[in-house]
Amino acid sequence: MKLSHEEVREILSIVKSSDFDTIEIKVGDIEIAASKSGRSRPGPAPVAADLATAPVTQEKPVSATVSPPMAQRPPEKSGNEGLIEITAPIVGTFYVASEPGAPAFVKPGDHVEEDTPVGIIEVMKVFNNVRAEVRGEVVSCLVEDGDFVEFKQPIFLVRPEA
Length: 162
Prior knowledge:
single chain; mainly beta; four-stranded antiparallel β-sheet; 8% helix
């Protein structure tokens, strides 16, 4: 698998607009590590002035959990007690429907099952279905259609079935 110059630029644009300092992405046999602060992990990866000629290096995969900033979390209210968050499984652009003008996958008051699609997250022109992974009633959608979402950012609140 190869990434085009434009795809690498899009990844770096997403990183630049996000709230985290470093990110590591692995797609197949390609791994990209980027840092806003210039701090990088030790290794043989060269710093390239031109992305078009930058070699792709193989490094060991690193697991990390990125928590969204507290400003993006819904305020703690007594009305949210007992509700379950459906969180974004990946970083990207969130869409409530399969295409512009189509009805939303779910809306407040709808019942969801574990496998119910609740939205789509787009990353580099790849559209990933987001499933509820919980049974219950959708109470609210915490993001707008077309919003950029972070990994593990709450996107829906669901009242679970008893």
